[in-house]
Design goal:
Elements (H helix, E strand, L loop, with lengths): L1 E8 L1 H5 L3 H10 L3 E8 L3 H7 L9 H9 L3 E9 L1 H9 L12 H5 L8 E3 L3 H11 L3
Antiparallel strand pairs: 1-3, 1-4, 2-3
Length: 134
Amino acid sequence: MRERTFVMVKPDGVAKGLTDEIVARVERAGLKIVSMRRMKLDRGLAEELYSVHRGKDFFERLVEHVLSGEVVVMLVEGELTIARMRELSGATDPAKAAKGTIRGDFGSSITENIIHAADSAESAEQELPLFFKG
């Protein structure tokens, strides 16, 4: 099933110079990056992106982290893209993420875990229009 999803290299990934490595891993997985750009989020956009976590104790940490530097946002397309990007990303907690996954290889904490990838078709539908039109 062909899908589109939202992927973001977080500020810690950009600062560590991992964008090219992440792009290479996405492409090696047979997925296509349809659109990509580097940007700085504003508070409103960051809060909208993480709105599903509003009210949770880690919400403000997430928002502050993505505001701490530039991010790289991507629209990724391919067969079973959502599940495949989640697999490439690894578990949210890098300590629990398998080696060979982006978080397992490069993440340092639950907040500073290098990458965000939509966790469902519903999330992708909500997140993509925040960054990509049409």
